[in-house]
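Teaching note: in complex prediction, the entire set of molecules is handled at once rather than each chain in isolation. The prompt given to students was simply: 'Predict the structure of this complex.' The entities are:
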Amino acid sequence: MFYQKTIEQIKTDTRPSSAGAKAFYNNPKYRGWIYQSLLLIFLIAFFYSIISNTLSNMAAQGIKSGFGFMTTSAGFDVLMSLIPFETTDSYTKVFIIGILNTILVSIIGVICSTMLGFIFGIAYFSRNWLIKKISIIYVETFRNIPVILQVLFWYTAVLTTLPSTRDSLSIGEAFFLNIRGLYIPRLIDEPKSFVVYIAIVIAIVAIFFLRRWARKRQDLTGEQFPLIWSSLGILLGLPLLALFIAGVPFHFEYPELKGFNFQGGINVIPELMALAIAMSIYTGAFIAEAVRAGIQSVPHGQTEAARSIGLKERKIMSLIIVPQAMRVITPMLNSEYQSLVKNTTIATAIGYPELFTVFAGSALNQVGQAIEMMFMSLAIYFALNMMISFIMNQFNKRVAITTR
Amino acid sequence: MPIKEFKPLPAQPAPVSTTGPIAWLKNNLFSSPFNIVATLLILSGLFLILPGLIDWLFISANWTGTTQDACVDDGACWVFIRAWSQQIFYGSYPSGELWRVNLCLFLLAVVIYLSFILPINLRNKVAIPAFLALPFVCLLFLDGRYLGLEYVNTDYWGGFSLNILLAAASIIIAFPFGFLWALGRRSNLPFAQSVSVICIEFFRGTPVLALFFMGSVMLPLFFPEGVTVDKLLRVWIILILFMSAYMAEVFRSGFQAIPNGQYEAADSIGLGYWQKTFFIIFPQVIKVSMPNILATFIMVFKNTVFLLVIAVPEILQVILGALTNSKWLGGHATEGFLFVALVFWACCYSMSMLSTSIEKKLDTSHKH
Amino acid sequence: MNTDHQASIHNMNEDIIVIKNLNKWYGNFHVLRDINLTVKKGERIVICGPSGSGKSTTIRCINRLEEFQRGSLTVNGVEMIDDVKNIEAIRKEVGMVFQHFNLFPHLTILENLTLGPIWVQKKPKEEAKAIAMKYLERVKIPDQANKFPGQLSGGQQQRVAIARSLCMSPEIMLFDEPTSALDPEMIKEVLDVMVELADEGMTMLCVTHEMGFAKTVADRVIFMDGGEIVEQNTPDTFFDHPETDRLQLFLSQILQH
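The expected output is the structure of the full assembly:
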């Protein structure tokens, strides 16, 4: 009797919290729900207080809400615009100009940084000690200096020290570089210029078919076709031929000094130049690093195996190294391009009129509707980044490996 | 048959044509026609640029003096940097109280040093609370009001010390937030997960400059009427949120690097979710994430310069202010920017070296 | 002269690889010391020795994966000099199988095999595929043709690697520790393929620790240590009557169990 009782006692004592185990709050499932409800309550309280604070603050400061301002006239001028703009135009137009300028500098940045990145990334593997060192110095210098400092450096320390318009640096009286930026000749179409454009289209289509034909011929006969050189030949030759057949249906509008300023041609303002140069060099350093990592991720055994079956070095590069390296490089390129687009906002520091400067800056200062205008701007950056992400993912699918 | 004794052939020196400086030059600089041309081009470029650059930077540079008039030679005017050095480093913080800023920097260095040298069993117990307390201790000292020291308004805080302290304070407070968001993103609670994902993606997808702008134009609207929140505090909040999003992603990849066996082992000895997370998983995540944490810190450290856009007197803003000072209108932008670039480069480069060495160590300790 | 050469191709006693006084340095480290080796057509040679003895380096010199600084090396009458044409000509004659297979992970098995025939031998695709399938059948995995290397076991991958080399119809096959990275149960399937290849009269140089393979297949076994050839002999003499104390020690260490 006594003995049994003890056993029973021991059992109840040692069973870990027998009562608690049945309690609902120890069930992981309910626990999860409790945490989530707490989170929900916190968020509701948080947003409730923010929204009520904001509303009362806005009422107190007399800030309007809604999107009525989009149709009112902006009343300020924009430094540079890809579409015609006058001070009487609406904020909607300012918004669009901002977007276009952002896209312009992003595209220039993406193209130039990719070229710089691939050149310096590949230079790392040069057998020339100097070239390799230059690649390392480039990457380690420029990625470790804040990009905004680089922008200011190019803008303030380099471009504003250029000569005045009267003493412009010029190449062949066609290109002029001075404190107001770079002036380049503008290409003006004449009536028959369409012939050349058609020739360009035909050349692109022809290269497409040439590639298919070359591939088919190689499949059937094994013979290889010098695709790159012949494509280049067609791409250059055909439009050139059309150009001369049509009697050069273009002329250049050269920039000319009239009074204190240049007229005609295309003017690249120093703000755009500084921003594009700095962004390209900065992002290029990161891309170079990505390219280096990508190429290094391909084991040396791959090259050795390709050599042992007798592939030439150039074919080893294009058939073995590049396809494998691109799988590593593409995702990194994706994030570098996205940060490039986000970094274009530093244009504010030098006044290049991209979206952030003209809309979230100048326009917001006048209208004062911070919430609407900030979110409109943010939406554009998110949209641009999603677009980059989409394109790069499509590209990634082509280079991705099915299984490893 | 008698066994012969094997006598190894003596090692011979490598032929002179394959070792030594001449062979090195031949292999590394003149190995092919292309390389010969490239080498010559680069060398001639260096000969064109370097002498003038060295002359401007050092030989003809002006090193001594206190005013712009001291800059008589053609070279760089380092007097500019000298004259403004206190501002560049401490902003407008009162000269007599600079020890407070130095103390904060010293404390930061001590805590970082401690976290490296403490034995493993003490490291998490001592270093983590010390890190978390640090920003608030620094706040008390810099502000001074509650310690009976002279009150220094945040408008006077500035310079490079502000860049350092702000970046450090942000990443420290971002640690717990980032970890929480990363846990949320990994958890199987649908609502918690989507909240985490939205937070992370919003703060990662927004340009940091836009966040600073929001901090200065939108954040004030969120606080109750009549409450004014200090500008630096708003910036700090923004930086913390921004960092948390990046840290969350760092931790997420850290979680993924941890073998599943660790979770199973933790489950098998009967640890609860929070115990498992903090005692088993967290230390390992920190360890494998260290290189990425450093990379994130380098990023935020560089991004503190963006604060000049909203007129926070960090290092570059000080330089820009100095450039427009009526006594220094001689155009010293190049010197100023080069100096700031050098300071940032030295800091970021040494941190990225550290990160690479940690990465290598981790690599070998995984492979044995 | 030319006719002599033509005639001698059919002579089984022709020297297909001639290595004379080969010396190689890594920086100042003397890795290969006066290697002299002549291989006859159809000969099967096994090279063994402790690690770091230079055995892999020796065979990697034969297809110029490693350069050497002194001495001469002739493969099938072509001298290995610093000339792209010569290197290409030699690589066409020499196939190589690696310790870690080195299959191309981004290509299917079939694509791995047809890569050489299409891009080096300039064969039509269908013909290249037919060749590839022929060799895949010989290594007994034709059903894996459309998989990727990562989906195959180690033994299967190594057999694919052998087939990839064979597709180039080489005169000589080099094996660089082909079974060292394999699980024990997979070694046999690879060795079986190698034995079959040896029976067909392929000239083979194998760096391997598989002494059973050496005893049954090799015409000659070479022992290297410290970058030099210490001893070479027929397998019987090599294993039963080693001439030097160094080989005796080596054999006693590896044959203990």
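Point out the following to students. Strands of chain C lie at 15-26, 29-40, 44-48, 70-75, 78-79, 94-97, 172-176, 203-207, 220-225, 228-233. The interface with chain A takes residues 63-65, 88, 91-92, 94-96, 98, 100, 102-106, 115-116, 118-128, 147-148, 150-151, 161, 164-165, 167-168 of chain C (CB under 8 Å).
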